Amino acid sequence: MAAAHYDVEKGGRYSPPAPAPEQQPYPQREREREWVPWFVPVVVAVNIALFAVAMYVNNCPAHAAASSRRGGAGACVARGFLHRFSFQPLSENPLLGPSSATLQKLGALVWDKVVHEHQGWRLLTCIWLHAGVVHLLANMLSLVLIGLRLEQQFGYVRIGVIYIVSGVGGSVLSSLFLRNNISVGASGALFGLLGAMLSELFTNWTIYSNKAAALVTLLVVIAINLAIGILPHVDNFAHIGGFLTGFLLGFIFLMRPHYGWMQRYVRPSEVKYTSKKYLPYQWVLLAVASVLAVLGFAVGMGMLFKGVNANDHCQWCHYLSCVPNSRWSCGK
């Protein structure tokens, strides 16, 4: 039983006012779904597992004796405790990994095999292989730092499509310019995620508060990573191809409702807002990016399987992947 209430000033019994009729609460601001990331962790696990498989297939100790008899490189690295999983000699692979022959056997990108032996599947399989422990750790750390946040915001389907298609896009551009080298690694797919982050910033411009800071920071990160690609033995064409592919796909898959739509429930009733969830410029960017992405892949694939050497049509493009100087040469 509730205790009696008294009006202290008037000395009378106090009757509490009747409760106000229950009011319908204002609808809350529409909140975007936050996904639990699993695609990125699975990709990391698969890459690590495939690297272990590559080292098992490589079996450096079994080939060391024959190689030394032919005057090959020195002994396997860490043979004493890694045994079959030991690394190739540093003079052959300074990244602590398998031999080039093993990588080719498992699906590395080789222009001659893609074009003349019709092994187009290598455009996809090469992004799951890595040349060594250093290569693997650098790429997987970058994937975790970039991919987890994107997957939380946009989900595994959209990020998965961008990651894989960007990887293939990087492989296509790499094959058009580099014919004498094999290529492996997830760098093209990672640059695709960076490109998607940039286009996501543009297409969702209205929802960002510190636009200039976000844009400058992202451009600096992209520029530094592309600059690293001009060093020798780094496939910058895969980086550029992946970045351009991801940049276009970001306009297609990462479009968000504009700021006015997301704030429509928390604004005063007298403030008008547009009833359209997306702004016209977002649809224009999506349409243009879709056309360019389809045309880019169609032209790139057509040139690749016809055996076209893109260097014949762009005499200076080889500088995008390696700039020779007094400290190193880029080879042929």
From TrEMBL:
Sequence ranges assigned to domain Peptidase S54 rhomboid in this UniProt record: 118-255
GO biological process, one term: proteolysis
Highest taxon of source: Eukaryota
Cited Pfam families: Rhomboid
Annotated spans, Disordered: 1-27
Reactions it catalyzes: Cleaves type-1 transmembrane domains using a catalytic dyad composed of serine and histidine that are contributed by different transmembrane domains
Membrane topology (UniProt): Multi-pass membrane protein
TM regions (residue ranges): 35-57, 127-148, 160-178, 184-205, 212-231, 237-255, 283-305
Entries under InterPro entries matching the protein: Peptidase_S54_rhomboid-like, Peptidase_S54_rhomboid_dom, Rhomboid-like_sf
GO molecular function: serine-type endopeptidase activity
Family stated for the protein in its record: Belongs to the peptidase S54 family.
Name of the protein described by the UniProt record: RHOMBOID-like protein
Taxonomic lineage of the native organism: Eukaryota, Viridiplantae, Streptophyta, Embryophyta, Tracheophyta
